[in-house]
């Protein structure tokens, strides 16, 4: 497996395309199709991703056998790292790709002297919650966030101590 840092508009486009594939496969049992489309357009569009890259969010792209199979996004916030995205193509689940991406994220956080890694995960995304627990995350609290257009994110905040 190979991991690279996303830098270009082309990288952002590839990430957005993979996000659409993953969200339409993974989330229909968790949120409505309407909310999936809204979330993709607001948070996972190529323009949004590229703007985040230019503003200092680090996107890592994971490749297996030269196929783009997953990505993560994170940024420093106060004394911790916020892991805003960690997505793997479902066809490549349970192959250690998420663990390898998370290892890179952890290495970055430690190198910058941060105390913890924080993320939000939908309360009903049980497979992801279990995967995060196996990595060492703990559920800290429940959080409901208004994301606009009548949609909310009904999440858990999970933390990983460094």
Detailed description of the structure:
- The protein is α+β, with helices and mostly antiparallel strands.
- Strands 1-2-3-4-5-7-6 form a 7-stranded mixed sheet, with helices on both faces.
- α1 (9-26) crosses α3 (46-54).
- β3 and β4 (80-88) form a beta hairpin.
- The longest helix has 18 residues, at 9-26.
- The protein starts with a strand and ends with a strand.
- The model has no long low-confidence stretch (mean pLDDT 97).
- It has a domain at 2-114: Gcn5-related N-acetyltransferase (GNAT) (Aminopeptidase), CATH 3.40.630.
- It has 5 helices and 7 strands; from the N terminus they run βαααβββαβαββ.
- Keywords: Transferase.
- GO terms for molecular function: acyltransferase activity, transferring groups other than amino-acyl groups.
Topology summary:
Layout: E1 2-5, H1 9-26, H2 33-43, H3 46-54, E2 58-64, E3 67-77, E4 80-88, H4 97-111, E5 116-122, H5 126-135, E6 138-148, E7 151-161
Parallel strand pairs: 4-5
Antiparallel strand pairs: 1-2, 2-3, 3-4, 5-7, 6-7
Domain N-acetyltransferase: 13-162
Protein name: GNAT family N-acetyltransferase
Keywords: Transferase
């Amino acid at each position: 497996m190979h991991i690279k840092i996303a830098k270009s508009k082309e990288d952002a486009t590839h990430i957005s395309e993979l996000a659409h594939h993953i969200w339409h496969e993974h989330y229909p049992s968790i949120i409505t199709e309407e909310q999936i489309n809204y979330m993709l357009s607001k948070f996972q569009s190529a323009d949004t991703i590229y703007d985040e890259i230019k503003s200092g969010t680090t996107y890592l792209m994971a490749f297996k056998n030269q196929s783009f199979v997953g990505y993560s996004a994170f940024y420093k916030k106060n004394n911790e790292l916020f892991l805003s995205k960690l997505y793997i193509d479902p066809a490549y689940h349970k192959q250690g790709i998420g663990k390898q991406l998370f290892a890179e994220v952890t290495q970055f956080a430690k190198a910058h002297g941060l105390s913890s890694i924080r993320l939000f995960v939908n309360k009903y995304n049980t497979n992801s919650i279990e995967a995060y627990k196996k990595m060492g995350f703990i559920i800290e609290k429940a959080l409901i966030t208004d994301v606009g257009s009548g949609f909310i994110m009904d999440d858990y905040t999970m933390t990983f101590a460094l």
